[in-house]
Amino acid sequence: MRVSVVGAGLGGLALAQGLRGAGIEAEVFERDPGIVARFQGYRLVLDPIGFQAVRDCIPPRWHPLLDEIVMPASAEQLILDPQLNEIGKLGAGRTGIVVDRQVLRHLLLTGLTVHSDAMLTGYDVLSDGNVTARFAGRGPATADLLVGADGVNSAVREALSPQTTPTDTGVRFVIGRTPLTDEFASLSKAFGCKIAGDGVSLLLGAMRFRTPPKQAAEQLAPEVTLPDIGDYVRWAMILPPNGSLHDLTAQDAVLSRMEGWNPALRALIEQADPDNSTLLSIRVVKPGERWAPGPVTLLGDAIHATSPTGGNGANTALRDADLLRRCLAEANEGRQDLLTAVDDYERQMFEYGTEAVRSSLEKLPAFAPEAKLS
In 10 A of CB 115, how many CB atoms? Predict the structure, then answer.
């Protein structure tokens, strides 16, 4: 069996790793001009299902390395004012495993065949049931299955299910990262909490490595090359829907809304790496009607993009990868045919993917009350 995966995000790479381990040939096609063309290094929290999905998709010999580059997450999820005084609670504390997206992505890239600068222009289902993907600037690729793991702007989804389109909630947020130095030790009680300002919310999260990733890889899995990064604070400010930024930089847009805030909070933003600070929009993709059965399917944000306030986007994409891996392994072993395997995957994925989007939108008003959720 041969599988073409479009998109080199966490879900697509985890799937390719899992298929490789199952003896299935997988190639990954990424539209970016290079694998590291865009910074993708923010902290995220994996729940037990998402973390187990990663473990099941990678070779067991990398499990000790994975365990060394993550940290447990535990937060009370308090609501603080800009002077860091407690003024409320968001709800039950959240637990899980914290991982750096960039580090995890480099782990998942190891040993895979990845073609960059490969923008999908369309695909054709052949008479023999195979599918040929067409790309701008490079030759086509034919496989038994084409998987669109190409994010909220999925080119695969546009061709497969054109009626399924992203919804813009109107909410914008700025995200960045700042080295975790002794200067910011006083902010530790704010990690995992919501800091409520005048029409904005600031969220902080610490990324602390048991062992620096590059060093951990050299010691535990020399065939893996991981980024040389240290501990940091990931921060994100959720802005009022459609709020004007007046052509400000990402950092200045945040600082302009922090007049009179705790000096340590302002210093955290001032000392952030400007190259790793960016403005993003919150868009969601709600799974609609199933498309006709065939050798093309979708994974992750391409079919169920969630609001980041739900904390379940990466987890759901990784769950997809592991589920599809298992279904395709059964087909490869002759226990069911390919289309039945894909149908089994889609049936389950649509159910929990729809719930993931709903759950994430349910949590959004706590951070952006004026968000458009319809």
Answer: 14
